[in-house]
Amino acid sequence: MPANLPPQYFEVEKRYREARTVSDKLRYLEEMMAIMPKHKGTDKLRADLRRRLAQLREMGATRKGPGRRAPVYLIEPEGVGQVALLGPPNTGKSSLLAALTKAQPLIAPYPYTTRLPLAGMMRYENVQVQLVDTPPVGEEYLEPWFPDLLRRADAWAVVLAPPEDPGLAWQRLCKNLARYYLCPEGNPPETPTSNLTVRPTLLILNQADLLPEPEDLALYLDVLPSNYPRLAVSALQGQGLAPLRAALFQILGMVRVYTRAPGKAANFKAPFVVPRRTTVLELAERIHHDLSRNFKFARVWGQKTFEGQRVTRDYPLQEGDVVEIHG
Ligand SMILES: Nc1nc2c(ncn2[C@@H]2O[C@H](COP(=O)(O)OP(=O)(O)OP(=O)(O)O)[C@@H](O)[C@H]2O)c(=O)[nH]1
Ligand SMILES: [Mg+2]
After folding, report:
1. What is the Cα–Cα distance from 87 to 272, expressed in whole angstroms?
2. Nearest 5 degrees, angle CA 105-CA 54-CA 17?
3. End of a domain among 216, 250, 284?
4. What CATH number does the domain containing 190 carry?
5. Domain for residue 48, yes or no?
6. What domain range includes position 173?
């Protein structure tokens, strides 16, 4: 047995042995490769895993015809948007993914458990948001796919936890991200840089159950910058998860609108999810080209003031609007 295999290797290996599908087996083998330390003692095992990977890939390829399977870190976007969960080690990123979606990530009391990203779909009322759990961001070098994954995400949710000072952890994280030209929106680097990837960001203080006194909780939250949405939650006890679902949708900057045909009721189960400030004409264009070409006016029933009022083509849609387009 090669020396120094970390405990999570054996957990993943167990899942690998129990996996029934080729794609699950592939996923766990890739995870085992990522977890395994690279030194002389693991050379033989590494070669053995590589051989098994090649065999499995071949099986996968013959089953699905030509073309290679995409690597696990290329996550196909699904749902109305993708939010990456990121942060320092052991804060509960994987626990949150497990609490909010049906995904089953590895969760363990030691740091650096997650080695590869894993996606899950989170339901929020009538929409699905894709969450991606990621390996921890520490001082060390990030594998190239990691910043790429963060660039492809629509928004980021930073997961912090006591007892570490979340203000300091946040500053350290921003510094680490800046090395890869990644910047949470509203926190520009001191030296202006081009090629920055800026993403709307939500701050989550997880493990709030460890701070049962309200004043302690307030103390921890207050050190986080107030220009970001800040939420205290507990993945373990399920505290604050309903507002977190809403916040994870809202950070995407989208609104839900509903269409109705004249004289018919709107279908509230199937919203159009469009970026904030989308105009009613842009919505018409999205539904059908003819609808925008023949656009005359629209009627809007809104949450606040509108009750079937006529609006012009440049009316910016609001969350919850019901729209009737007249051509
Ligand atoms: N008390 C408490 N413990 C939690 C909570 N969320 C997670 N934990 C525990 O914290 C430890 C780390 O959880 P993970 O979900 O693996 O954390 P992670 O951020 O994914 O860790 P890495 O992948 O290593 O970065 C586990 O022992 C969890 O059971 C929480 O809300 N409250
Ligand atoms: Mg994890």
Report:
1. 32
2. 40
3. 250
4. 3.40.50.300
5. yes
6. 82-250
- What would the pLDDT profile of 97-115 be if each residue is shown by its tens digit? 999 999 999 999 999 999 9
For residue 24, the Cα-to-chain-centroid distance in whole angstroms is: 21
Q: What is the pLDDT of residues 9-55, one digit of tens each?
A: 989 998 898 888 888 888 899 999 998 888 888 898 999 999 988 88
Q: What is the dihedral of CA 228, 115, 178, 144, to 10 degrees?
A: -140
Residues 44 and 126 in one domain: no
Q: Indicate whether 222 pLDDT > 80.
A: yes
CA–CA distance, 148 with 154 (Å, rounded to integer):
12
CA of 6 to the centre of ligand 2 (A): 15
184 shares a domain with 211: yes
Residues with CB under 6 A from ligand 1: 89-95, 107-109, 111-114, 136, 206-207, 209-210, 234-236
pLDDT exceeds cutoff 60 at 72: yes
Q: Are residues 47 and 193 both part of a single domain? A: no
Q: Which atom of ligand 1 is nearest to the CA of 237?
A: 31
Atom of ligand 1 nearest to the CA of 88: 25
Confidence of residue 136 (pLDDT cuts 50, 70, 90): very high
- At 8, is the pLDDT very low, low, confident or very high (cuts 50, 70, 90)? confident
Number of domains in the chain: 3
Q: Is residue 75 part of a domain?
A: no
The tokens describing 120, both together, are 């899950």
Burial label for 220, CB within 10 Å (0-12, 13-18, 19+), is buried
- Answer yes or no: do 94 and 140 share one domain: yes
In a domain, 282, yes or no: yes
Is residue 1 one of the residues assigned to a domain? no
What is the amino acid identity at position 210?
Answer: L
Are 87 and 14 within one domain?
no
Mean pLDDT within 272-295: 91
Percent of the chain clearing pLDDT 90 (strictly above): 65
Q: Say if residue 56 is in the same domain as residue 204.
A: no
Banded model confidence at residue 261, pLDDT cuts 50, 70, 90? confident
- Among 9, 86, 107, 158, which residue has the most ligand 1 atoms within 8 Å of its CB, making it the best to mutate? 107
Please tell me which residue, 288 or 222, carries the higher pLDDT value.
222
Closest CA to 230 of 157, 155, 325: 157
